[in-house]
């Protein structure tokens, strides 16, 4: 499938899958979307100083980079697990401008390390941020009660409906601790119903630029 690097509405770049007309991040602003969905309504909402995070769709590493940046500013201890079945290439990573756009030149080497480090191994990217990348199909996740927060950032249901099913959200529910949070950019009715069906308490929240709503689900 043809892939290309595009510039989004806030000046940050993302990867476009041209045949699907699908992007790794919002065309309206990759960084804006990441902050709004995953940081504002996920990381900040957890209200914990020590947080275990599961990212479904490690992709470009943008969400991990921003979470690391926020962990340093807010003195949070983060254990971050990123799951990705199809890693981006080193050439694509080299074209992404997140360090520049976020104005964090001190994290340039760390961002590259996120992508170059070995899969299935824990690595300390800062004294309080541990990353582990798992090269794994989302449908093969079997973790139980390990995470405080899930960033659900899979490709949209329009192109990969199999990743937005009741069976997948049952796995997410199982992976969370009690009172754990899942956030996603999606607000589709079918997604909300799948979350409801497995026991999540689901709320619709205002979406990022270019999107009216998003979903946050809590395991109570």
What features would you describe in this structure?
With 220 residues, the protein is of the alpha/beta class. The chain has one domain: 3-Layer(aba) Sandwich (Rossmann fold), CATH 3.40.50.150. The protein has helices spanning 30-46, 62-74, 90-95, 98-102, 108-116, 166-175, 189-198, and strands spanning 3-7, 13-17, 22-23, 50-56, 77-84, 122-126, 129-135, 147-152, 176-184, 201-206, 213-218. Strands 6-7-5-4-8-9-11-10 form an 8-stranded mixed β-sheet, sandwiched between helices. Strands 1-2-3 form a 3-stranded antiparallel β-sheet, with no helix packed on it. Strand 2 and strand 3 (22-23) form a beta hairpin.
* CATH class label: Alpha Beta
CATH superfamily: Vaccinia Virus protein VP39
Structural class: alpha/beta
Rg, alpha carbons:
16 Å
User: How many domain units?
Assistant: 1
Tell me the strand percentage band.
Answer: 25-35%
Oligomer description: single chain
Sequence of secondary-structure elements: EEEHEHEHHHEEEHEHEE
- Please, what is the average pLDDT? 97
Cα-to-Cα separation, first versus last residue? 41 Å
CATH topology: Rossmann fold
- Uncertain ranges: none
Describe the largest sheet: 8 strands, mixed
At a glance:
The protein has 220 residues and is of the alpha/beta class. 32% of the residues lie in helices and 30% in strands. Strand 2 and strand 3 form a beta hairpin.
Record the SSE blueprint.
Layout lengths: L2 E5 L5 E5 L4 E2 L6 H17 L3 E7 L5 H13 L2 E8 L5 H6 L2 H5 L5 H9 L5 E5 L2 E7 L11 E6 L13 H10 E9 L4 H10 L2 E6 L6 E6 L2
Parallel strand pairs: 4-5, 4-8, 5-7, 8-9
Antiparallel strand pairs: 1-2, 2-3, 6-7, 9-11, 10-11
